[in-house]
Amino acid sequence: MKQIDQFSGKKVLVLGLAKSGLAAALLLKKLGADVTVNDGKPLEENEAARSLLSEGMKVICGSHPLTLLDEGFDLVVKNPGIPYSNPIISKAVLDGLPVITEVELAGFISEAPFIGITGTNGKTTTTTLINEMMKKDGKGTILAGNIGEVASEVVQHATPQDHVVIELSSFQLMGIQEFRPHIAIITNIYDAHLDYHGSREEYAGAKMNITKNQTEEDFLIINADQEALLSMAGASKANVIPFSVYQKIENGAYIEDGTIYFQEEAVLPVADIVLPGSHNLENILSAIAAVKLSGVSNEAITHVLKTFSGVKHRTQFVREWNGRKFYNDSKATNTLATKSALTAFDSPVILLAGGLDRGNGFDDLLPYLHSVKAVVAFGETAEKWRETAEEAGIQLIEKAKYMNDAVERAVALSERGDVILLSPACASWDQYKTFEERGDIFIDCVNTL
What sequence ranges are listed for the domain Mur ligase central (predicted)? Predict the structure, then answer.
């Protein structure tokens, strides 16, 4: 950990706890800051806040009083989930007070370079692939961010020989001031989180923050199949390394004649890859570009791609049973994610779908349902799914109340050679606390067949 003094004696407000806020508060205290913590959860229900209180920090819980800012803070470190429309954040910005996220702190103290991954879809798969490839090649890696541990906590133990592989959300990247990854990846950009950002322009701008402090010594890996994204990358000072599923790119990663290349060097045949889906080819190409730039061998890359069957809840292969293959894509909480899952399979699909009703329909999935032979619908959107399936000309449509019933009905509707796919296109909160819980129950049902 780098020894820095820029926070010594500074008054810092940590707004919002959870894991990142707790880690930020403890680190700032270690760096000599005068820390005040403010969290919305009442103190009696807030174990993290009580632990900081015992550390001698000032802790204010239960509300976010605007009068807090009268104490003359030098800096605000906010939880990424707190929007900039929050009254305290709005006033801090108006007053010219720096507002950062915990990732920025990690950048200040880390002795290891960062490989940062962002994008609308594919972040977690890409991050996992990079980490696995680096490990297989014997390189020191530290997994951080949304998929790993809190960055400002784990980088305290990083050495210059390590690589911090970090998944970054647009929420985190909005708080970037000096954070600089040596290698940055933007997998793709689609409309998402507009309720938080307010516009696609702000959302895309937040994603592009990943490269704003990069120099000509750094690398920006970008999806060349998205012209708008490629155009935006032109503003970066980093070396731009494109990847493409559809076209040959001599200075980047691409596919030609069934083989993946990086900068005209053959890496491995596409046929050797276990992970299904054309959308995953984007993730694979970006991961290969990152690790090749880091000196990882083709042997390590090939080993991982021959064995890696997916991140849990993201088109995850669960089991083959009686000639049926089961996939868990519970992370598909919107139609865009389900569209990607459906395009991954050539075999007939039994689709399990449904969940929280957010008011939208599923008409945009109609062109992608041609391989679906049956739909088992559940949750608040079950009736909407029935109507969509009928419009698509699907003859086999059933409703289920619980996941075990849905799996049993899917099996009854299937034949040998079919894929049974959970890809709900909806959030889980009508029946489950999280998409992880929904996926875990699906896995349990499949494994008890």
Answer: 117-291
List the domain boundaries for the chain. Answer: 11-100, 103-307, 316-447
Q: Which fold has domain 316-447?
A: Protein-Tyrosine Phosphatase; Chain A (3.90.190)
Q: Find out whether 433 is annotated in a ligand binding site.
A: no
**Does residue 30 come out as left (phi exceeding 0), alpha (psi in the -120 to 50 range) or beta?**
alpha
Of 415, 442, 417, which Cα lies nearest the Cα of 346? 417
Q: Is 159 marked within a binding site?
A: no
Q: Tell me: is residue 384 an annotated ligand-binding position.
A: no
Please write the tens of the pLDDT for every residue from 287-298: 999 999 999 999
Q: Is 343 annotated as a binding residue?
A: no
Q: What percent of the chain has pLDDT over 70?
A: 98
Q: Tell me which CATH homologous superfamily contains domain 103-307.
A: Mur-like, catalytic domain (3.40.1190.10)
- CA 413 to CA 421: how far, in whole Å? 13
pLDDT tens digits for 18-34? 899 999 999 999 999 99
Fold of 11-100: Rossmann fold (3.40.50)
